[in-house]
Amino acid sequence: MNNLKTIDMLENDSIKVEIVTHESLSGSKTGRGAKTIYYQEKAGIKLKNVKITLKGGSVAIEAGALYFMKGNIEVKSAVGKGFMKNLGTSLLSGEKLFKPEYTGTGEIWLEPSFGHYAIVELEDDEIIVDKGLFYACQNTLEVSAVSQKNISSALFGGEGLFQTRIKGSGIAVLSIPVPQNELIIYKLEDDTLSVDGNFAILRKGKIDFTVKPISKGLGTMASGEGLVQTFKGTGEVWLAPTQIVYELLDMGYPLSSISGAGSSNTKTK
């Protein structure tokens, strides 16, 4: 197993969570597959697994994410507190209500992916993340869908009516849209962050999220700018500014189409 490398890790008394990469893939049986792997490795794209070591603790995992496990581990379907309330919210938000819970001692490996992950630890705190980012967490954390607090953010924010709240104390794993070293993390102190785009993926602390025109004096037509996501208060906001680049490339747009004019902008004041 010397082909495996741990690139990130968090641990407490109950669990250890690792992001493990496969440093090279040499098992392709076709030239086409080998060519794809060759260029991915040249670009630094590594196959990854999330590995969770249970030390008598419990972890909830996104349904369908289990790859394999070893040890004395009991599995049950966990629906959490307030089943009927969560059921209605789940149906509206599209979030999966049933998240299998694994308890005991041993190893759990989640499905391999070329995607990206972040491990976060909360201490009597909460984070709000984009829908679909939750991947796994200790059962000491509560995961629920939370609706936007105002009409503007729900209708024009680009994040939908619901996002995901992770609350309590413990370790969580997020499936993020870009490598962690490409994130920009702003720590706000009674400050304002304005984002022209949908690449703010997480907020933490006492931060109000609204959507409004970028200029009070000019309409959006006159200013040449549209509505911006606004984060105001004290706390933390995670931005994934390179997300749009990968999305455009994946849709087949050439690099020349990615220009500064009319692109997403971020401002603090």
TrEMBL record:
Domain of life according to the entry: Archaea
InterPro entries in the cross-refs: AIM24, AIM24_sf, Trp_RNA-bd_attenuator-like_dom
Name of this protein: Transcriptional regulator
Species name: Methanococcus vannielii (strain ATCC 35089 / DSM 1224 / JCM 13029 / OCM 148 / SB)
